[in-house]
């Protein structure tokens, strides 16, 4: 739409565009951690071609691969734990709703409803704690990945890739 046009021209252009829906999706940008992991995977896949090398950069490439494996396992564990906690939260919430419905027909039982509410609060607290622990462990793993990545690049660029003569 031309913003320098007269108001009547803008209204006509607006009328023409009302019938169409345009969906604009931006390309998702990688976070620093994602770009770091992608760079490390690239270096690891490149260094897999150099099997049998005992150079310092091949050792750091193996450390990179090990750290990437730890990150993947940590992500998988977090997804499984989050799924399990969410399912248990779902079951407790459904049980709580069922208890509230039953109180319409039977005498009120505050202990069972209060216990269910307490269990929900405990599950929510556990979800938050696991999310925080996951972020802390990922931060440590990404720090280690960055260290090995920088070391690998320094060894490659600084002639640190000499063969061991031991």
Task: Record keyword descriptors for this entry.
single chain, 166 residues, mainly alpha
Give the SSE layout.
Layout: H1 7-18, H2 32-47, H3 56-102, H4 110-157
Helix pairs in contact: 2-3, 2-4, 3-4
Give an overview of the whole structure.
This protein has helices at residues 7-18, 32-47, 56-102, 110-157. Helices cover 74% and strands 0% of the residues. With 166 residues, it is mostly helical. It is elongated. It is built from 4 helices and no strands. It has one domain.
Reported for the largest beta sheet, the result is: none
Instruction: Please write the string of helix (H) and strand (E) elements.
Output: HHHH
Radius of gyration over C-alpha positions, nearest whole angstrom: 28 Å
Distance between the termini: 71 Å
SS-based class: mainly alpha
Low-confidence stretches: 160-166
Round the mean pLDDT to the nearest integer and report it.
80
DSSP helical segment count: 4
**Count of β-strands:** 0
Strand content: under 5%
Count of individual domains:
1
Q: In short, what is this structure?
A:
The chain has one domain. Helices cover 74% and strands 0% of the residues. It has four helices and no strands.
